[in-house]
Amino acid sequence: MRNEDAVDLLIGARLAELRAQHGWSLGELAERSGVSRSTLSRAERAETSPTAALLNRLCHVYGRTMSQLLSEVEAAPAPLVRAADQQVWQDRASGFVRRSVSPPHTGLRGELVEGRLTPGADIAYDRPPVPGLEQHLWLLEGALEVTVGDRAHRLGAGDCLRMRVTGATRFRCAGPGEARYVLAVVRP
């Protein structure tokens, strides 16, 4: 079994567990998240790899950041996580690779994430996973367009964008090369 498949199994099990903890049916979760019952069912059974947009919607419903959700599928939290052991998740459909750099711990408010977008990648989130989330995006390589609400920001290597996320956001890599960035996320 590939590592990506194992991560999808763990994510699916955690999503099913969260839904059960809230006492929601698939129909109730579909209404709350705006995601179809069939998509939710396939994600919970790991029949499909969930997209970043799908996980974002579910994180919003459950009041978690994506890093928190991903850290919940790991074993015990540690103060140090070696590069080789950092959780990597890939949205194959959009060309997005996400590495959880910070040691996972659900009790902390801040986390670091490395993001990579292939040329042409375009990811739109209709809402933040946690309203009022503060993010600092430091672009290490490439070019990236980040839209927060109705305002677009064009970033080049070395630029840093600070944003408080209360609504829709969009990350777009027009190319010609990959965009690689560090995202510092701080819960309100």
From TrEMBL:
InterPro entries to which the protein is assigned, alphabetical: Cro/C1-type_HTH, Lambda_DNA-bd_dom_sf, RmlC-like_jellyroll, RmlC_Cupin_sf, TransReg_Diox_bact_type
Membrane-crossing segments per the record: none
Ranges for domain HTH cro/C1-type: 15-69
Keyword Amino-acid biosynthesis: no
Cross-referenced PANTHER family: BLR1115 PROTEIN, HTH-TYPE TRANSCRIPTIONAL REGULATOR
Any GO MF annotation of the entry: DNA binding
Native organism taxonomy: Bacteria, Bacillati, Actinomycetota, Actinomycetes, Kitasatosporales
Protein name: DNA-binding protein
Keyword set includes Glycoprotein: no
Alphabetical UniProt keywords: DNA-binding
